[in-house]
From TrEMBL:
Name under which the protein is recorded: Ig-like domain-containing surface protein
Span of domain BIG2: 40-117, 123-200, 206-283, 289-366, 372-449
InterPro entries according to UniProt: Big_2, Invasin/intimin_cell_adhesion, NUP210-like
Domain of life: Bacteria
């Protein structure tokens, strides 16, 4: 039944009993051990490794020992949380309250252990969807969510279904997709208790864009204009829009797009689709109208080949539209561009006129085009004159055919020497003076240094 070696190591050979005796060499003393040889437990497993049991219900776990002919089949059952579920020594598990516990079974022989996690669920009392009705565009997706009562329901798994999959489909995650125009009911059914909730889905052709007939508009106070909104696609199911003015004190808009100007200023008229909230807008200006204009200067002279810029003053000064059109009644004498830049072409006269776009007001500048002075020179650059004597300086203008031949004389030191309008220089006292001549046209200058000495 059992053998033993010289070191006291006993080995079971077959089922049964044997006495193992140790005898001392010294004195022949002996001691005996009664050995029972059995078939030992090598493993234990449970019929379930996880289980769900509702409060008040029970389930029996079955333990299987390997080998099946093990001599000692005794086991001990235990719950890690008996306040959630208890277990008796037959493996019967009774659910007490919601929560989780581990039911374990251990063999007496070898202390082999197996376990099962038991969940006592919090059962759903009702479910609802976050939407009871909704509208989806063809080709678009919208997600529905399930709300459980109580919120800490343990098993929140649901099965989704559509009663009209040709109109709308739904996947396992509650994502609803519009397939074609029409209606469908989307239902969620809970795995826990078979509770259900539904959402009525309408599938439509959605709005993708909206545009206005104008993006900018100008309307005078008291006048009106109607903006036209165009929705894309033209067959969109929901064509409803909402109109709005960002500054109704300047201009109002009704729900037909009619804009009425109230006072000067600017406002943005916007239109938004009910479906998709697509937006288009138009900036509306209610102008401060011109009462009149003036060209500055109203009379002027310009030399041939020279450019001069005219300006326009509006009344009132805060007139909104200050655009004007320029014209010359004699472009062979003077031309004018769109910016009021006048260029002399030939000697003569021309009227340069500005016409306002707002109100058509006009104002004119009388323009004389002349041959301009390019240089002035004196017959002397230095001179010596005795006290009491005089000398005449001669000024020459270039070109000789310059229209304006006028010039002025000046002495830098009239106490030493004076000069009259004819260039006559008179010596007053010893010293030095600079006599300067300046052309009226172009402000060209020439000078002569005059030294006054005593009579010898």
């Amino acid at each position: 039944m059992a053998t033993v070696d010289a070191y006291g190591r006993v080995k079971g050979i077959a089922l049964g009993s044997a006495n193992i005796t140790a005898k001392s060499d010294d004195g022949g003393l002996s001691a005996t051990c009664a050995i029972t040889v059995q078939t030992g437990v090598t493993k234990i497993v449970l019929s379930k490794t996880a289980d769900t049991i509702n409060v008040g219900n029970n389930d029996t776990l079955v333990a299987t020992i390997t080998p099946s002919n093990a001599t000692n089949q005794a086991v001990t059952w235990k719950s890690s949380n008996p306040s959630v579920a208890t277990v008796d020594q037959n493996g019967k598990v009774v659910a007490v309250k919601t929560g989780t516990t581990v039911i374990s079974v251990a063999t007496q022989d070898g202390n082999k252990v197996a376990s099962c996690q038991v969940t006592v669920p919090n059962l759903a009392s009702s479910i609802a969807l976050n939407l009871t009705s909704t509208t989806i565009d063809v080709g678009f997706t919208q997600s529905l969510n399930v709300v459980f009562t109580p919120s800490n329901t343990t098993d929140k798994k649901v099965t989704w279904s559509s009663d009209n999959t040709s109109v709308a489909t739904v996947d396992a995650y509650g994502r609803v997709k519009g397939i074609a125009l029409g209606s469908a009911n989307i239902t969620a059914k809970s795995d826990d208790g078979g509770l259900s909730a539904a959402c009525a889905v309408t599938v439509q052709t959605g709005v993708t864009k909206i545009v206005l007939s104008k993006t900018t508009d100008t309307i005078n106070v008291g006048n009106n204009d109607t903006l036209v909104a165009a929705i894309t696609p033209g067959n969109a199911t929901n064509q409803a829009v909402t109109w709005k003015s960002s500054n109704p004190s300047v201009a109002t808009v009704d729900q037909n797009g009619k804009v009425v100007a109230v006072k000067t200023g600017t406002t943005v008229i916007s239109v938004a689709t009910q479906d998709g909230n697509k937006v288009a807008s138009c900036q509306v200006t209610v102008p401060n109208l011109a009462k009149g204009i003036s060209v500055n200067p109203d009379i002027t002279t310009v030399n041939i080949g020279v450019t001069k810029t005219l300006s326009v003053t509006f009344r009132p000064s805060d007139t909104t539209d200050k655009k004007v059109t320029w014209s010359s009644d004699n472009p062979s004498v003077a031309t004018v561009d769109a910016y009021g830049r006048v260029k002399g072409i030939a000697e003569g006269s021309a009227n340069i006129t500005a016409t306002s776009e707002d109100g058509g007001f006009t104002s004119t500048c009388a323009l004389l085009v002349q041959t301009g002075v390019t240089k002035i020179t004196l017959n002397k650059t230095s001179d010596i004159v005795k006290v009491g004597n005089s000398d005449t300086l001669v000024a020459t203008i270039t070109p000789s055919d310059a229209t304006n031949q006028n010039f002025t004389w000046k002495s830098s030191n009239p106490s030493v020497a004076t000069v009259d309008t004819n260039g006559n220089v008179t010596a007053i006292k010893p010293g030095r003076a600079v006599i300067t001549v300046t052309s009226e046209d172009g402000n060209k200058t020439a000078s002569c240094s005059v030294t006054v000495i005593y009579l010898s």
